[in-house]
Amino acid sequence: MSLYDALQLALQPNVIFAVIIAEFFGVFIGAMPGLTATMATALLVPFTYFMDPLAGISMIIAMATVAIFSGDIPAVLLKIPGTPASAAQTIDAYQLGRRKPASTLGVDLVCSALGGLTGSLILMFSAPALAEFTSNFSTVEYFWLTLWGLSMAIVISAEEPIKGVLGVVIGFLIASIGIEPVYGYVRFTFGSVELLNGISFIPAMIGFFAIPELLRQISRPHERYSIQLLKGEKVFDLVVVALKKFKTVIVRSALIGTFIGALPGAGADIAAWTSYGVAKRVSKKPEEYGKGSLEGVVAATTANNAAISGAWIPTLVFGIPGDSITAIALGALMAHGLRPGPMLFERYGSLITAFFIIFIIANLLMILIGYLAIKLSTNILRVPRNILVPVIAVFCVIGAYAVNNSIFDVWVMLVLGILGYFMGRLGIPIPSVVLAIILGPMVEFNFITSLIKSDLNPIVFVSRPIAIGLAILTIFTWVLPFIRVRRIRRST
């Protein structure tokens, strides 16, 4: 089907309506300190099961796009990042916002849209080419690829790689519950019929990402924010200055954000910090960073939104999530019968092109909806916790129950939520656990299948050139964090 057909799909009234609703939802979630875009995605996914695939996935795309921007609102007005992706620029955004809060948010908005559009265009042109390249991959290449994706879970916790490994092990254990995928052995069910099919993905994601946040919100019920009021300046006062002065920064940050977003497990927060650090190193005025640097704000906010689009590259092409948002979206894709990989582009070419168009529409609509959010931002931040927490808790229960119409899934959500809360307190990274839950079964299936095909000959894993390259990359990824930690310890 042609681009015109994909446009017709993307511009259907129900799809556009779903995008608009999701963007308003994303604005609210992102602007509330402590509520993350990942948590919002986990809450949203069960409702997408009752929609057609394009409208359902479009809601996730649009919500995440806007939530990352609106996380800058409390950063500017409260000095508190609304989402982890906004943390890199918080100090500079707040210092700059003390003088011009509305126009600082205007810069955030426009640069977020530019970063998102750049990432969307790179996704649109690179994903089909990568899918064609991987069409001849065997189970051996997919084994190394998925194992490398798991290895990235160690990299993102490089300061304490042991905790990253522990998170992967916990994720593997959770993923191994139920019937083994090749030989059909029953594992870790303890006689429970409900566990034969394993742990349901969406209740697990709601538990890991939503319940710990709610517990943290409950622990500070009387916390009040001193909100910095917007002054009378125009929202787009600083935008022209930023676009003229920092064109190179915007382009570089968008490319960095897209690249880092495409790395499994990295995400928008790492993209923002990396881009911010690079911008500071090459800046002509690095002394301004941390004191209200407009350049620092531009670099971080452009990169974090570019990473949102970039994270979909490995998700659609390899079935390896780029971040925790696409990890949850991957479950939604598969629930709709859309299994990521090269065949997805061959069988559903027009639908995938429509997804790409939705990315562009979502970023363009974000400028309008984001403008309204800036105008209403002080009211959004005043929503009382005693109203917010119970409403989100109800959505958690409904979302967990709706997947299989099972009370058992609600208990799974609660148990894993409490586990996730204590893991967070111990510093065990939840993204590592989530990556292992998703990729663990894929690693196991491709490993066992490759051995069966080769009559249990392990040489098969290094018998092809691409497999050897991926094996070297995987081993290097595992070793790198430990080398870094050792160097840091020696230098101190």
Description of the molecule:
It is built from 23 helices and two strands. It is mostly helical and 492 residues long. It has one domain (3-491). Helix 5 (72-78) packs across helix 6 (90-97), helix 6 (90-97) runs antiparallel to helix 7 (101-133) and helix 7 (101-133) packs antiparallel against helix 19. The protein is globular. The model has no long low-confidence stretch (mean pLDDT 82).
What is the assembly state of the chains in this entry? single chain
Helicity level: over 70%
Overall mean pLDDT:
82
Q: So what's the overall shape?
A: globular
Helices and strands: which structural class?
mainly alpha
Beta-strand content: under 5%
Total E-strand runs:
2
Order of helices and strands: HHHHHHHHHEEHHHHHHHHHHHHHH
User: Count of helices?
Assistant: 23
Strand order of the largest sheet: 1-2
Spatial extent as radius of gyration: 22 Å
What about the largest sheet? 2 strands, antiparallel
Contiguous runs where pLDDT drops below 50 for at least 5 residues: none
Question: Span from first to last CA?
Answer: 60 Å
Domains counted in the coordinates: how many? 1
Q: Which short descriptors sum up this protein?
A:
73% helix, 492 residues, mainly alpha, globular, 23 helices
